[in-house]
Amino acid sequence: MFVILVYDVGEKRVGKVLKICRKYLTWVQNSVLEGEITEAAYKRLKIELKRVIEENEDSVIFYILRTTKYSERETMGVKKGGEEIFL
Amino acid sequence: MFVILVYDVGEKRVGKVLKICRKYLTWVQNSVLEGEITEAAYKRLKIELKRVIEENEDSVIFYILRTTKYSERETMGVKKGGEEIFL
Q1: What is the ipTM of this complex?
Q2: Is residue A49 part of a domain?
Q3: Out of A8, A59, A66, whose CB is closest to B70?
Q4: Where are the bilayer-spanning segments (chains A, B) (predicted)?
Q5: Which of residues 2-41 of A touch B (CB under 8 A)?
Q6: Is residue A53 part of a domain?
Q7: Per residue of chain B (87 residues), what is the pLDDT tens digit?
Q8: How far apart are alpha carbons A6 and B33 in whole angstroms?
Q9: DSSP state letter for A66
């Protein structure tokens, strides 16, 4: 499955959150990562994040795409990161 | 179609970009909006954004989902915005 992860976390935790996310997904833009990931790896990612974020302050959103067949990505302006393989 | 928009733009342009995006999509998190949008409205959104952003400095990514049938959204921590109708 393909996951788009966006996070909005406290300044003190950004470094830790980004470090964890980068183990599983590709950084594409400030607070945005994406990539193919297995169910098992996705579970591990969530467990690791849960240990770091402040549940009542931070926000992490996962968009889970079972298939990328019906989706595409368009970029305006500079391409900051990411891989071309998405779509 | 359903669009997830993420932006990473210069401080001076954030207000303008957010104002434009909010005309078309729902704010869900810092620099992230989402929502159902027609092709015509999507074109207008891009034209308006092109007038405001600095092409060689700012980055806007659109994830376009033709259908949300194969996708879902999961939130960890606080829910900052958005509507429940997504998936």
Answers
A1: 0.90
A2: yes
A3: A66
A4: none
A5: 4, 6-9, 28-32
A6: yes
A7: 999 999 999 999 999 999 999 999 999 999 999 999 999 999 999 999 999 999 999 999 999 999 999 999 999 999 877 655 454
A8: 11
A9: S
What is d(CA A2, CA A11) in angstroms, rounded to the nearest whole number?
Answer: 27
Residues of chain B with C-beta less than 8 angstroms from the C-beta of A7:
29
Q: Which domain holds residue B15?
A: 2-65
- For residue B46, count CB atoms less than 10 angstroms from its CB and return exposed for 0-12, middle for 13-18, buried for 19 or more: middle
User: Could you tell me if B58 lies within 8 Å of chain A, comparing CB atoms?
Assistant: yes
Q: Residue B61: which of A62, A71, A73 has the nearest Cβ? A: A73
Say yes or no for a CB contact (<8 Å) between A56 and B70: no
Residue with structure tokens 């999507």? B42
Domain with A45 in it: what CATH number? 3.30.70.240
B87 in helix, strand or coil? coil
